[in-house]
Amino acid sequence: MGKFQIITHPLIQHKLTILRQTKTGSKDFRELVNEIAMLMGYEVTRELPLEDVEIETPITQTVQKRLSGKKMAIVPILRAGIGMVDGFLSLVPAAKVGHIGMYRDEETLKPVEYLVKLPEDIDQRQIFVVDPMLATGGSAILAIDSLKKRGASNIKFVCLVSAPEGVKALQEAHPDIDIFTAALDEKLNENGYIVPGLGDAGDRLFGTK
Ligand SMILES: O=P(O)(O)OC[C@H]1O[C@H](OP(=O)(O)OP(=O)(O)O)[C@H](O)[C@@H]1O
Ligand SMILES: O=c1cc[nH]c(=O)[nH]1
Ligand SMILES: [Mg+2]
Fold first, then answer.
1. Which residues bind 5-phospho-alpha-D-ribose 1-diphosphate (predicted)?
2. Most buried in the list 5, 26, 61, 160, measured by CB within 10 Å?
C-alpha cells in the first residue's frame, strides 16, 4: 500500500484556514492555493533520489549532491488543479506539465474526461497529479487510470482537502500510489461536497458559478 500523509506544517494549516473561509475572494484564494502547493511540493519531493557529482568551487574540487533518477511531470486535473501548478513549478522549474480535463456530473457525481494532453515520455517520468479536492475520489481514480493506460507507473497524488470516502476509494483503486493531503476532513454531504471543506475549488479559483 502506498503512503497516506497529512502534511501538518503550521504555515500550511494557517493558510488553509484562510482559504476555507467564504469571505476569501478569488485573488487571495488563487495566491493561497499557489503558496500551499509550493509548501506541499517541498514535502512531497523529500524522497527524490540524489547522486554524487564532482564539482569545482573557487577553493577546491569536491563531491556534492544533485538530483538523479526520473525526470518529473506535474499533471493537474482541470480546472482546479491548474491553481497548484505554479507552486510546484517554482520548486521544479524543469518539470513538464501534462493536463487531464475532467468534471463531475452534478447528478451522478461521476467524473467525465474531456481532455488528456501529456508529455510523450510520460511513462518514464515521476508524476505528481495535483488537484485541490479529493471528494468521492472518482476524478483522481479516473485521472490515474488514464495515466496508467499510457504507461505511467510512478505516480503521487497531491491535494489540499480530502474526504475519508475519497481516500478509501483511491487507495482501493490504486494501492500503489502515495497520497498527500493538507487536511483530512470529516465527510461528504448529500451533494458530494467535502464538509467542512472550502466549497467548489474551481469556481472559487476562477470566479465562476
Ligand atoms: O473526488 P471527486 O468526487 O471526483 O471530486 C473532486 C473533483 O471535483 C472538483 O472538480 P470539478 O468537477 O468541480 O471540476 P472543475 O475543477 O472544473 O471545477 C475537484 O477539483 C476535483 O477534480
Ligand atoms: O467539496 C468539493 C468537492 C468536489 N469538488 C470541489 O471543488 N469541492
Ligand atoms: Mg468545480
1. 79, 104, 131-139, 200
2. 160
Torsion angle defined by CA atoms of residues 170, 172, 173 and 174, in that order, rounded to the nearest 10 degrees? 80
Ligand 2 atom nearest to CA at 188: 1
pLDDT digits (tens, 9 = 90+) for 87-116: 999 999 999 999 999 999 988 999 999 999
Catalytic residue list: 104, 108, 200, 203
Cell digits of residue 208: 465562476
- Using CA positions, which residue lies closest to atom 8 of ligand 2? 200
Ion ligand 3 contact residues with beta carbon within 5 A = 200, 202
Q: Say if ligand 2 is within 6 A of residue 194 CB.
A: yes
Is the model's pTM score more than 0.90? Answer: yes
ipTM exceeding 0.90? yes
Tell me yes or no: is domain 4-45+69-206 CATH 3.40.50.2020: yes
